Amino acid sequence: MENKIFPDGTNYKKIEDNKEKNLFDANKNIFFDEYSYHEKHQQSKLPLLGFFIIFIVGIGLMFYPMVNNIISNSRHHYVISSYDNEVEGTSKLKREELFERAQEYNKALKHNSIQDVFSTDKTSNDTVYDSVLNITSDGLMGYIEIPKINIKVPIYHSTSEEVLEKGVGHLKGSSLPVGGIGTHAILAAHRGLPTSKLFSDLDRVVIGDKFYLFVLDEKLVYQVDSIDIVNPDELDLLDIYPDKDYVTLVTCTPYGINTQRLLVRGVRIEESEKEIADELNNRELIYLSRDDQLLIGISIILLIIIVVLFIKILRKKK
Predict the structure, then answer these.
(1) What is the pTM of this model?
(2) DSSP 8-class letter at 189
(3) Which of 188, 132, 141 is nearest to 165 (CA)?
(4) Are 83 and 145 in contact (CB under 8 A)?
(5) I need a surface site. Which of 120, 243, 263, 312 has the fewest CB within 10 A?
(6) In sequence order, which residues have a C-beta less than 8 Å from that of residue 283 and are 6 or more positions away?
(7) Contact of 170 with 187, CB cutoff 8 Å
(8) Which long-range CB contacts under 8 A does 40-44 form with residues at least 24 apart?
(9) CA proximity to 279, closest of 212, 206, 217
(10) What are the pLDDT digits (tens) for 51-69?
């Protein structure tokens, strides 16, 4: 552009250059204002998004034990069904022979020779003990059902850590769980495992409640007659009583602290096949307790409310 000078001495080219510069600055300001708006808009979403993510993670952590318990119950159901099929496929003569061997084993025990269940790993290296009642050759000797706390769990030989991670363990040195006067079987399981409920709710059992043992084709019924909390080295209550048929269920207490032992003892009572069937068949074994179902329902409602609010807020900010 030609550099013109007005009569008053004003430089025309300089005026035009200033106009272009001002226009550029104005456009630049508009651009940065829009960028700043979008940046602030995006930043305003971050706290809400963070809260939503934290909420979802919290729900996931809350449901983690429930989901694991469902998986564990399904696994227990499969193991127990396989055991029942194995027993059914074994001849009556063989079943009677296996049961009599267990009774002979118990007769040789005048006293329970035991230590605290949870103090050391009680892996068994006793081939005689390991072979008794081992119809499936994997250490499974039967299963226990406790209607009061809604569990049905396999019972395995020994109380090794491997066994206690997957089910109930029989404490070696105590009577085998086949009943009979002068026997006292000790069955132990963990509380508070993230992967399985097991004996977590054993403290809800009260005197008069029943639990059921299924060993080979025998069904044994025990009614709770004593509940005690003792120190780990207090074992007198776990000894054999010559004129009694006892089974004691053992777990750690207080919950999460585990400095003592909860002993729930049952005495054998006689019930007919029909009575047992009526008591157990009238109760549906559910995978989730009522508390768990209530918690899931509340969590779903809260999740729906959070999602709806989240969507409404996002729409308002657009």
Answers:
(1) 0.74
(2) -
(3) 188
(4) no
(5) 243
(6) 147
(7) yes
(8) 41/317, 44/317
(9) 212
(10) 667 766 776 666 666 666 7
84: amino acid identity, one letter: D
Sign of CA dihedral 142, 206, 162, 80: positive
Phi, psi of 137 (to 5 degrees): 60, 20
Measured between alpha carbons, how far is residue 230 from residues 116, 201, 281, 312 in Å? 11, 18, 35, 57
C-alpha span between 152 and 138 (Å, rounded): 18
Give the pLDDT confidence of 244-254 residue by residue, as tens digits: 999 999 999 99
On average, the pLDDT of the chain sits at 82
* 124: its two tokens: 């068994």
Tokens of 149: 């706390």
Q: Is the pLDDT of residue 28 over 50?
A: no
Q: Pairing relation of β-strands 151-157 and 168-170?
A: parallel
Residue 148's contacts (CB-CB under 8 Å, 6 or more residues apart) are 204, 205, 206, 209, 210, 211
2 closest CA partner among 14, 20, 23:
14
The tokens for 298 are: 């509340």
| Secondary structure (DSSP) of 2-29 | ---B-TT--BHHHHHHHHHHHHHHHHHH
pLDDT score of 304: 78
What SS3 state is found at 242? coil
Pairwise CA distance, residues 189 & 169, whole Å: 6
pLDDT at 292 exceeding the cut of 80: no
- SS3 state at 213: strand
* pLDDT value at residue 204: 94
**225 to 32, 150, 185, 186: CA distances (angstroms):** 80, 19, 15, 15
DSSP 122: B
Contact 221, 271 (CB under 8 A): yes
Q: Which of 282, 252, 147 is nearest to 192 (CA)?
A: 252
pLDDT tens per residue across span 180-219 = 999 999 999 999 887 788 999 999 999 999 999 999 999 9
Structure tokens that stand for 193 in this block: 């495992």
